[in-house]
């Protein structure tokens, strides 16, 4: 049974701790490390982890650790992933994997060189919704997907991790990646052209944006993302012979309705999804299954898809002049 460890003890780490605790028959909740030893000890005690560490170095030096889940703030992901890989650990890192595609590409190369698994914890890709969406599009009854539309918004522009570029802030890398991921789930090919506008706060963080994407296969996406107001989470995948409407939240959709035609009287089928638990269980199982099969890449969380989303985000930030401190 794989020993899972968590690097950090913040809110997202707490959610993963609860997840691992619920999967004790499949993986071992082994250790939690944080710069604040009291927080690490408290979280480990709450969910029955075997060990806690003050600082990350001790956790990475423990030979019993098999997989490290990284839940630190965005700008520290690359540093922590590299340290874990160099210590010989497999890594599941919270999204976004890194601040930009160049960082991610370098780390995927390091993982391959070391024979280790590195995956981005884009949990939406592992949910039953994603499987149902892919299956419906693959069976061909709706024709080729041509357009993805999505709207999502949360009133959180004053939260430091959103408001401050030094923390990797902004709507795009926090919730916008869910809209980009949905477009990439539905549409094939590289993002060959981006357009759109964004609103920045006084520190230069993007807090609201309207995004247009064109894919090399000829399809398009139109996405609206806001961190300064709540907006209904709605999306649609429009195909030549029908469409799929998706009910939010877009990171964990509750249902999708498949319209088997283009007219107002088109037959419809609504598929509802059981989103009980934390939602992180499928990604943990996917990583564990990949390692059990001797893989160094998780099929449900492929490197190519992480890079496709990050390259689109890079292009959008370049268009808007949004940069993070220390970026080359």
From TrEMBL:
Residue ranges annotated for the GFO/IDH/MocA-like oxidoreductase domain, each copy included: 131-244
Keyword Metal-binding listed: no
InterPro entries: Gfo/Idh/MocA-like_OxRdtase_N (IPR000683), Gfo/Idh/MocA_domain (IPR050984), GFO_IDH_MocA-like_dom (IPR055170), NAD(P)-bd_dom_sf (IPR036291)
Pfam families: GFO_IDH_MocA, GFO_IDH_MocA_C3
Annotated Gfo/Idh/MocA-like oxidoreductase N-terminal domain residues: 3-119
Keywords for this protein: Oxidoreductase
GO molecular function: nucleotide binding; oxidoreductase activity
Entry annotated with the keyword Ribonucleoprotein: no
Similarity comment: family membership: Belongs to the Gfo/Idh/MocA family.
PANTHER family membership: OXIDOREDUCTASES (PTHR22604), TRANS-1,2-DIHYDROBENZENE-1,2-DIOL DEHYDROGENASE (PTHR22604:SF105)
Name of the protein in its database record: Gfo/Idh/MocA family oxidoreductase
Organism for this UniProt entry: Ruthenibacterium lactatiformans
């Amino acid at each position: 049974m794989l020993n899972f460890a968590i690097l950090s003890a913040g809110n997202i780490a707490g959610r993963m701790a609860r997840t691992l605790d619920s999967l004790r028959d499949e993986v071992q909740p082994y250790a939690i490390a944080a710069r604040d030893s009291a927080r690490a000890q408290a979280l480990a005690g709450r969910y029955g982890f075997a060990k806690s560490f003050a600082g990350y170095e001790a956790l990475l030096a423990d030979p019993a650790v098999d997989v490290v889940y990284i839940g630190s703030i965005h700008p520290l992901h690359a540093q922590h992933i590299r340290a874990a890989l160099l210590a010989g650990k497999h890594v599941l890192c919270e999204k976004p994997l890194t601040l930009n595609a160049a960082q991610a590409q370098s780390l995927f190369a390091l993982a391959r060189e070391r024979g280790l698994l590195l995956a981005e914890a884009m949990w939406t890709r592992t949910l039953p919704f994603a499987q149902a969406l892919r299956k419906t599009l693959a069976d061909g009854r709706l024709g080729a997907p041509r357009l993805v539309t999505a709207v999502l918004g949360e009133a959180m522009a004053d939260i430091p991790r959103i408001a401050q570029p030094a923390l990797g802030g902004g709507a795009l890398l926090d919730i916008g990646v869910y809209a980009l991921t949905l477009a990439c789930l539905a549409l094939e090919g590289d993002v060959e052209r981006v357009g759109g506008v964004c609103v920045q706060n006084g520190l230069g963080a993007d807090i609201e944006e309207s995004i247009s994407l064109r894919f090399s296969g000829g399809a398009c996406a139109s996405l609206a993302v806001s961190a300064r107001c709540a907006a209904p989470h709605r999306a649609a995948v429009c195909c030549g012979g029908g469409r799929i409407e998706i009910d939010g939240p877009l990171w964990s959709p509750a249902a999708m309705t498949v319209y088997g035609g283009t007219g107002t009287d088109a037959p419809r089928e609504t598929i509802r999804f059981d989103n009980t638990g934390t939602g992180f269980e499928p990604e943990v199982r996917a990583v564990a299954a990949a390692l059990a099969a001797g893989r160094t890449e998780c099929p449900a969380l492929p490197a190519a898809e992480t890079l496709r989303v990050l390259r689109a985000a890079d292009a959008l930030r370049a268009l808007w002049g949004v940069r993070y401190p220390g970026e080359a």
